[in-house]
Amino acid sequence: MYDVIICGSGPAGMSAALFLRRANLNILIVEKGTPGGKLISTALIENYPGYIENTGIDLAMIMYRQVKHFKIPYAFSEVMKIEKLGDEHFVVHTKEGDYESKMVIWAAGTIAKQIEAEGEEEYVGRGISYCAICDGSFHEKQNVVVIGGGNSAIEEALYLAKICKKVTIITRGHHFRADPVLMEKVMRANNVDLVTHHVITKFTGKDLLEQVTAKDRDSDNEIVLNVRGAFIYVGFTPSSTLLENFDILDEDKYIIVDRNCETKVTGLYAAGDCIQKNIRQIATAVADGITCASAIVRKI
Predict the structure, then answer these.
(1) 114 C-beta neighbours (distance < 10 Å), count
(2) Residues 56 and 15 in one domain
(3) Cα–Cα distance between 60 and 39 in angstroms, integer?
(4) 67-98: per-residue pLDDT in tens?
(5) Can you name the residues that pair with 192 across neighbouring β-strands?
(6) Exposed (0-12), middle (13-18) or buried (19+): which is 228, by Cβ within 10 Å?
(7) What is the separation, in whole angstroms, between the first and last Cα of the chain?
(8) CA 223, CA 199: separation in Å to the nearest integer?
């Protein structure tokens, strides 16, 4: 039996793992994808201490190398169910097998929201993407659209502007919500157009995406963009479905935790963007992971 199983290896999960391992606890990380979480799909990071500028992949790999340096074991599999069988006895069921532990840290992050426009599901993977750094290279020297008005949308649009012929950014709001420093950069880009107060109504094409239709929210006038790629950044939903049976989620499905990042289920902790909090940044995810780990070390 492990002391702690950590579900997820983004900044929160890896930070917790490093802290716990240095306390000589027997731990396991369960991860279904590439270590790094949303870092992997982040083109540019400028607000994490220690780096003037870095890519998400680079930062994720630095964290992962630290984890491997301390010989922290990984189980690369998808968690299917978590059970609590008694005091300090959890079972984490995965596609590859079951693992037992005294405590669990859930650090599975969030998943990208869909905009639920006509044709969205049909063209996912055929022009529609939720990760510019993953799929942007498929659209080199092509016209693309970025949907969203926050930091993520603008950061990824800046990345795409370096490789695409033209980038159109569409937000449903009257103004973009991104940080001023990002808006200054995007305003200087000569191949980026900004469209406000429009909603996407339709994605169309033959085998691949060819057009995106957007409608003005006041006048209902439509614009049709001839593009080969659409990148959607309209927010995230917490990856918390597997914890619904513990009755620890708020109305938006974020996990409710105390100041030690422990849920009301003794021994079940949560960290990172999936928990109920006001700020979701790399730095706060790291802090959550360390908060969990330090509480567990004190308890054990």
Answers:
(1) 14
(2) yes
(3) 6
(4) 999 999 999 999 999 999 999 899 999 999 99
(5) 167
(6) buried
(7) 14
(8) 10
From the DSSP assignment, how many helices (H) and strands (E) are in the chain?
A: 7, 17
Residue range(s) defining the domain that contains residue 63: 2-111+236-299
Alpha-carbon gap, residue 291 to 259, rounded angstroms: 8
Same domain, 38 and 67: yes
Whether the CA torsion 55, 235, 225, 175 is positive or negative: it is: negative
Is residue 238 within a helix (H) or strand (E), and if so which, with residue range? strand 236-238
What token pair was written down for 218?
Answer: 């006041």
What is the residue whose two structure tokens read 């999960």? 13
**pLDDT at residue 240, rounded to an integer:** 96
CA distance linking residue 116 with residue 122, whole number of Å:
11
Same domain, 122 and 91: no
Give the pTM: 0.84
3 state SS of 235: coil
Q: Is 219 exposed, middle or buried (0-12, 13-18, 19+ CB in 10 A)?
A: exposed
Distance between CA atoms of 145 and 52, rounded to whole angstroms? 28
Q: Tell me the residue length of the chain.
A: 300
CATH number at residue 182: 3.50.50.60
Closest by CA position to 42, among listed 172, 140, 157, 193: 157
**DSSP states along 48-93:** STT-SSB-HHHHHHHHHHHHHHTT--EEES-EEEEEEEETTEEEEE
